[in-house]
Amino acid sequence: MFYRFNKKELVFEKCPKTLTIVILISLISSFASYIVGLNRGLVCNPTPFEKELVILNPEEQSFSQEELVVMLKELNVKYPHIVLAQSILETGHYSSTIFKTNHNLFGMKEARRRVKTAKGTQLNHAYYDNWKESVYDYAFYQCRYLGRVNNEDEYYQALDASYAEAGQYSYNLKQIIERENLKDLF
After folding, report:
1. Which of 68, 89, 106, 92 is closest to 185 using CA atoms?
2. Alpha carbon distance 163, 149 (integer Å)
3. Which of 13, 23, 109, 185 has its CA 20 to 30 A from that of 34?
């Protein structure tokens, strides 16, 4: 299945069958040209279709804090600066084994009583196919357990009461928010 990006509506659209056939023929001929070029030591120029072709692979979604900020905004997560601070604290600034191995940004355990995106438990924490799934999982957690929180103080109290395993969790989050000016990102 091939998709093309509609720049006006900012969505991916399924290619019509005729265009799919043209793309396949173009890709096959480009591949053949590439093989011939390799044998002759030549460099192939991409065809116009290759410039517009986008291959989506959800398992190869590289992480950046900027992409996380965008996703938190898109999901309309409550108090995104606090959530971003949680990701920094829980992952040791995105360097922890739990983050690198499990794609877990928030030190989440696998949920038992709510909708979840976790694939299971590994290293005593939930694991995901990619980091974005951990953001969705946190959003589900927030909707389920923190949906009635009305202000930041209540949010911090709820985190201290039911989320944090370490002492001074809220204090540490506030320090990160202030030190890294996280409120300015939202």
Report:
1. 68
2. 14
3. 13
Q: How far apart are CA 170 and CA 164, in angstroms?
A: 9
Check: CB of residue 12 under 8 Å from CB of residue 5.
yes
Q: Output phi, psi for 120, to 5 deg.
A: 160, -160
Which position has the token pair 């950046």?
Answer: 64
Q: By C-alpha distance, which of 80, 91, 73, 134 is closest to 109?
A: 134
- The values of phi and psi at residue 7, to 5°, are -70, -30
Distance of CA 91 to the CA centre of its chain: 15
Domains and CATH numbers, the chain: 3-56 (no CATH), 60-185 (1.10.530.10)
Q: For 11, list phi and psi in degrees, rounded to 5.
A: -140, 160
pLDDT at 41: 52
- Taking the CB of residue 74, how many other CB atoms lie within 10 A of it? 9
Instruction: State the pTM of this model.
Output: 0.67
CA 184 – CA 97 distance, rounded (Å): 29
> Mean pLDDT of successive 10-residue segments in the chain (186 residues)?
63 65 65 57 49 51 91 95 97 95 94 90 94 95 91 95 87 96 93
